[in-house]
Amino acid sequence: MIEGVEWFVRTSIEYGTPLLLAALGEVYSERSGVLNLGLEGLMALGAAAAVAFSIATGSPWCGMVLACLLAALLALVHAIVSVILRGNQIVSGLALTIIGIGLSSIVGSNYVGLRGNPITSVIEIHALNRIPVLSGLSGLDPVAYFTMVTAIVLWLVLFKTSVGLKIRATGEDPSVVEAMGHSVRTIRFLTVVFGGAMAGLAGSYITLVLSPGWYEGIVAGRGWLALGIVIFASWSPLRALLVAYLFGGLMQLRFVLAPYLGVGGVLLKGLPYVLVIVILALLSVESMRKKIGAPESLGKPYPPG
Amino acid sequence: MRELSSIARKAVGSHRKALSYTMPVIATLIAFLIYSTLLYMSYGIDIGKLLNSWKDTLFTVGGWKRSLTRTLPILMPAVGLTLAFRMGFWNIGAEGQLLMGLLAGSGVAIFLAERLPQAVALLLMFIAAFSTGALWALLPAYLRGRLNVNEVLTTLMLNYVAASVFDFVVRGPWRDPSAYGFIKSPPLPEKTRLDVLIGFSLAALFAAAVYILQNYTVFGFEVRVVGSSYEVARAIGISYIKTAIKVMAMSGGLAGIGGLLISTVMTGVLMESARMTPGYGYTAIIAAWLARLNPVATVLSSFFLGFITDVGVLLETVYRVPASSIMVFEGMLLLAVVVSEPLEKKLKAL
């Protein structure tokens, strides 16, 4: 029983990690005022590129870094369209998703069905190994730990440094930031590209760690879930960590329950998405809305008009 | 971009009207160039081979029929989406609404049609498809109208929920046990099948109807007012939630009919969701925007995209290039629409 719980903790974190990585990047870009609906496509591109490059270079780590860069490059398009040209962020983001999925099919087409060159190393934390349940936190892959640390660092940067203050101010009232002599465009540009890199990393985690190998559709809506997670986490990297692991647990619940459900197991696939809708509805109740507060200028181009 | 705008300016002089027609053409050419370069770099397919595969679709009767067949599930949702987008309601859920309509309409065909006269059966199928698609679209409308829940996410999430419901039904209760290892339903009876031209005429009729609704009725006026300003709409007594519910019922319903046309015109049987639609509901979003939210123009844009989709499939069978690679081209077209709006503003100011 205890082993079951430990296994559940570990897999929840593994399934939650790509969600968290993508959500962290999106927290930054939304905090600066830019909505990026391209996450799903960026993750797909990252996922395919990671497999391709990990095989081509012989190193999964090189593959991961290159996947990151490629996704950042694609996010650059969204940055140019929505920040520089001030086009509609929703349509631009959707276009990015469509392009990303298309590109991923090209990049990955020679690698369908191959296991690729996955990351197999794990880090044992011996102090945790003797504690029941918590030992589930030991023996994860390095990227999962890196992601936890990143969440904390990003939280610190966002709320405890002047850089973070600038980013948050840009999302709330860009005219103030401009008046202080900073460039709203530069800040937004950088957060969007950063968000792209994180989404690329998230995608590469899926194909290099979670379920090695590439096939079309492997991202399976995780990019959209990440967008939901950003809202539940009320744009905080630390809360995103908790919410993402919760959703990670939910995503693999169907593997736990599958033996008991037979063909009904496929219905559980829809469960995380139903939950997003339910939570969104709950969060929208007036008293809650005041507490969470989306960035005031989210989705609005600057300068306006 | 500056280069692009100067080319556009030279090309069209000061004729603003001409501008809105030249921009899409230029954008399409640029998108095509980028896409073909990509194919050349990745698969060594040069532009000649690529154009050849366009020829196979464009200049054969079979090619036209295939393109038209693929046009239907793009056109029907696109027509409905023009309404939703005009009121500023971001319905990204056409894919799910389409799947639910496909499921319900085909269900009527498979399990009830045998005992009914053909006309009644067809009518029931369309009613089932429309109302199920509409129902699936109502929740986001209600949540947005009542609780101000972001409709982009709710409509999107429901796509995945719809796919899992669809797959559950097709794998479980409706699975044809006599189909051996294949996951599919019993076939739709012959009398419930429609010819592609009938399907297309029907879809064109819906497009015309929505065009009239949008431009010559009070309801169409209300939709546009809500779309241009939420405050103005409230000031003159237009209820947001009522408009949203009506618009989404129509948008979802039309997408549902688009779904039904997949089985009655194309496949004749239900399979798993991924095999029924390569994302027609998402392509419909592109079709609606390419048509600049004009329902009649969606007939053209949807046909164009149906044609493109068919070329994508040909590329896969002939050159083993994944069919989804064509999405790169489609996505760039959508991007061009986004870019052209602020660019046009700038050009007009020159």
Structure characterization notes:
The complex is a heterodimer of chains A (305) and B (350). Chain A is mainly α. Chain A has a single domain (2-292), classed as Orthogonal Bundle (ABC transporter involved in vitamin B12 uptake, BtuC). Chain A is built from 14 helices and no strands. The termini of chain A are far apart. Chain B is an all-alpha fold. Chain B has a single domain (68-320), classed as Orthogonal Bundle (ABC transporter involved in vitamin B12 uptake, BtuC), CATH 1.10.3470. Helices cover 79% and strands 0% of the residues of chain B. The two termini of chain B are 15 Å apart. The model of chain B has no long low-confidence stretch (mean pLDDT 90). The interface between A and B is large, with 48 and 53 residues. Chain A: This is ABC transporter permease. Chain A: It is a multi-pass membrane protein. Chain A: One of its GO terms (molecular function) is transmembrane transporter activity. Chain A: Keywords: Cell membrane, Membrane, Transmembrane, Transmembrane helix.
| Spans where pLDDT lies below 50 across 5 or more residues of chain B | none
Count of structural domains of chain B: 1
How many angstroms does the end-to-end distance of chain B come to? 15 Å
Following the backbone from N to C, one meets helices and strands of chain B in this order, namely: HHHHHHHHHHHHHHH
Q: Looking at CATH, which topology of chain B would you report?
A: ABC transporter involved in vitamin B12 uptake, BtuC
Number of H- or I-type helical stretches of chain A: 14
Helix-strand category of chain B? mainly alpha
